Amino acid sequence: MAYKADIAGGSLKVYESRIIASLLLRRLPAAEWRQAIEVDNVLQKTSIGTAKRQASLIKARLKRMTPELWEFVRDGTKPVATQAVFAAATTHSPLLRDFLAIYVRDRFQSGELALTRSHWRSFVASCRERDPEMSDWSASTEGKLGDSVLRILTEVGMLSEGAKPSLQPVYYEPEIISYLSDPKFEEVRQAMQVFL
Fold first, then answer.
1. Which residues fall within 8 angstroms of residue 139, CB to CB, at 6 or more apart?
2. What residues contact residue 51 under an 8 Å CB cut-off, 6+ apart?
């Protein structure tokens, strides 16, 4: 299991993910990777530390997938790239995956489509029952994690924008659904389609 707070590093970061996917497809040696991230600052961040953290998170997400998905991220339309990064983030983060599979699915099934920070806090409290080894997170870390997860759901279109955000189904692009039809992605696909 092992729920981790690494998703607090940000939302989907589609623009940055396109750059990292391009670097991964070039199969750069470690020295050239460091050159691109730390010297050339391809992610255009204000500090090397931020660039390294974001590159590391995005790389970890994308490395859970295959080069075919990296090409969707690099070359796809905005919806395709966004959904591909969402699939990678859902694969990478048990926290995000379980929030979708357990909590968001329950909201869709009950027809109570509002989703707020209080729902996130309830979910995190329940995580300790599933993962006794889970670290104790400060209130601010828990809040940042919740902000990141809700922003991810908004970016992919599963959560509406506005003063009272509510859950809504997502139309996934055919190439994303086809990619996720591989049995090894069954759990991820089900988490992404909790509204079905």
1. none
2. 37, 38, 41, 43, 45
Distance CA 150, CA 145 (A): 9
Q: Give the other-Cβ count within 10 Å of 194's Cβ.
A: 21
How many CB atoms are located within 10 Å of the residue 108 CB? 16
pLDDT digits (tens, 9 = 90+) for 26-57: 999 999 999 999 999 999 999 999 999 999 99
What Cα–Cα distance (Å) separates residue 151 from each residue in 113, 115, 135, 165, 183? 16, 12, 23, 11, 28
- 9: pLDDT confidence band, cut at 50, 70 and 90? low
Percent residues over pLDDT 90 in the chain: 84
Which structure tokens are listed for 159? 């959560």
Give CA angle at 138 (134, 144), nearest 5°: 95
CA pair distance 86, 91, nearest whole angstrom: 8
In whole angstroms, what is the distance from residue 119 CA to residue 90 CA?
Answer: 19
DSSP 163: S
Look up residue 26 and give its two tokens: 């070039």
Q: What is the pTM of this model?
A: 0.95
Cα dihedral angle (85, 31, 28, 188), rounded to 10 degrees? -30
Q: What is the pLDDT of residue 184?
A: 94
Q: How far is CA 157 from the centre of its chain?
A: 13
Q: Is 145 left (phi over 0), alpha (psi -120 to 50) or beta?
A: alpha
